[in-house]
Design brief:
about 120 residues; 5 helices; single chain; mainly alpha; two-stranded parallel ribbon; two-stranded antiparallel ribbon
Length: about 120
């Protein structure tokens, strides 16, 4: 019998609220001028975050072109992602209905993959 290999972010769970919170924490550390009322619009809602995340070629473009970081700020921000992700306690939840799907296939072995910690 086979197995099911799940992708974690965006397939099993909605990690966008956590990713937005992590990005806000990183901006507060490396670019405090982009916080509060000056927070980039792409970090103000899940819809705006999705727009920027899908339009950007990569995370570097996301941070520069959509969040407004300088090149130096972007480089520093990239080095902080893992640290902030491991410290972040924003709750992530299964997408609606997935618990029933997983339960339905409970007789099959499962694995989860993710590039995130």
């Amino acid at each position: 019998m086979g197995a099911i290999l799940w992708n974690y972010d965006g397939t099993l769970v909605n990690s966008v609220p956590q990713n937005i919170d992590i990005a806000k924490q990183i901006l507060a550390e490396v670019a405090p001028h982009l916080t509060g009322d000056l927070l980039p619009r792409y970090l103000r809602s899940e819809a705006e975050y999705h727009h920027a995340n899908h339009a950007a070629k990569n995370w570097q473009d996301l941070y520069r072109d959509y969040y407004g970081l300088s090149r130096d700020e972007m480089v520093l921000a990239g080095s902080l992602w893992a640290k902030h992700q491991e410290m972040n306690r924003t709750e992530v939840r299964f997408f609606a209905g997935l618990e029933a799907v997983i339960d339905h296939f409970s007789a099959i072995s499962h694995g989860i993959c993710s590039k995130n910690a």
